[in-house]
Amino acid sequence: MALMEGRAGFVTGAGAGIGEAIAKRIAAEGASVVVADVDDAGGERVVREITEAGGTASYLHVDVSSEDDVRAMVDAVVERYGTLDFAMNNAGIGHLPVPLHEMETAQYDKVMAIDARGVFLGLKYAIAYMREHDIAGSIVNTASGTGLKASKGLTAYVTSKHAAVGLTRMAAIDYAEHGIRVNAVAPGSVKTPQMVAQPADIVAGYEALMPSKRMARPEEIAAAVVWLLSDEASYVSGDIVEVDFGYLQAG
């Protein structure tokens, strides 16, 4: 039996990169998925590719920093598929390295709004539904190695990912008695469109930092996420799973 057979939920930031890989893997494992993103073309493409492969998915335009959008996303999952069993708070943005005192406040606020507030809102509304309907659901947040260790020049990103780690751990202990599991993945460098669009010297630098001397493929992160969402990880909660080929341990 597929790991996610008969379940329904959402993946944010699923129009490309890690989120795309997660949505496709979840659908391949039998779940119905709302593909959420602000990139309409990307999200609709992912849905088309999932359905062409025999999966069940639909697209919804969602700005994860908007409380109204996130509330509507949870409602959409339930309206379309009858329940909400899992949530994957993946949407995030980064920024080029810049000293803290030179960072534009607007840029800091934007990263925090998506990478931290977005996780909070995804947790808030998914958990509220699960509590109300007595669902022992599973939630995974996309953190980062930078949520566990600082990285020079990445002030907003590091801060937001530390927040994602804190939210994961707090939600895990707050809702353990309700059977709701909350975990996070902490990828190292991943070969996503967002990553490879950066200047070549920065991309090469990130690759060189990895003990494997290569970036992860998005599908490698997706495999860890599906395990955490599934019953295979039924006694795992509050964990931050490092998917970085030993980078944090080597450093």
TrEMBL record:
Pfam families: adh_short_C2. Keywords: Oxidoreductase. InterPro entries: NAD(P)-bd_dom_sf, Sc_DH/Rdtase_CS, SDR_fam. Coiled coil: none annotated. GO terms for molecular function: oxidoreductase activity. It comes from the Bacteria. Belongs to the short-chain dehydrogenases/reductases (SDR) family. This is Short chain dehydrogenase. It comes from Agrococcus baldri.
